[in-house]
Design the sequence.
């Protein structure tokens, strides 16, 4: 029975493990940035590996929308970066290729794999540190994942409320503007009628 539960937990764990992985070619003396919106207080980790080309170097930096560096490494080759977001905004992971002046360059192959939240958290050694069994470690990971999902739903609910308030405010403004426009048109039509009536009377076309 315990083996069945363990297998089920492991299957669920493998199912919910998600990571964003990509590979691209970075041209010499160019800069390529990858953007992503991330919630507040989210742990982010990334593994990168850059193909080696003699004489060429690549700088790696993680930048927030204000231009601040969350992580930076010059002459990056292979490794991992981690950071925790301070607020909800767009973050950029930028690769900048540099070659000496006068040297011909070659495209470098760049591999990047990023993980967020529970997927970025390392559970290795947790069983020894907290004296937990493998099944308990998986349950702990799934518990953290459940909390993350609840937070995501809470964030979605908050955004839905903000969008609903914005829609209601926009509808109210459109309604007031429509009423104002109708009153202006009605006033203009009344003035035109009175003006034409006065004009025709002055020309003695009507009494």
Sequence:
């Amino acid at each position: 029975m315990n083996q069945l539960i363990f297998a089920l937990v492991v299957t669920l764990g493998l199912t919910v493990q998600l990571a964003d992985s990509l590979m691209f070619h970075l041209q010499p003396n160019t800069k390529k940035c990858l953007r992503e919106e991330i919630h507040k207080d989210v742990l982010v980790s990334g593994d990168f590996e850059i193909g080696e080309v003699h004489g060429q170097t690549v700088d790696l930096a993680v930048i927030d929308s204000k231009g601040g560096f969350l992580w930076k490494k010059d002459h990056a080759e292979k490794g991992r970066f981690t950071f925790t977001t301070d607020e909800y905004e767009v973050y950029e992971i930028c690769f900048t290729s540099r070659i000496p002046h006068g040297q011909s360059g070659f495209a470098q192959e760049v591999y990047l794999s990023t993980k967020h939240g529970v997927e970025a958290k390392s559970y290795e050694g947790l069983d020894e540190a907290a004296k937990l069994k493998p099944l308990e470690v998986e349950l702990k990971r799934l518990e953290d994942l459940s909390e993350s999902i609840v937070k995501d739903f809470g964030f979605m609910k908050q955004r839905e409320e903000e969008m609903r308030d914005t829609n209601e405010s926009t509808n109210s403004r459109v309604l007031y503007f429509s009423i104002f426009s109708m009153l202006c048109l009605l006033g203009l039509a009344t003035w035109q009628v009175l003006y034409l009536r006065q004009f025709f009377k002055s020309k003695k076309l009507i009494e």
User: Anything to note?
Assistant: The mean pLDDT is 81. The first strand starts at residue 20 and ends at 26. The longest helix spans residues 134-202.
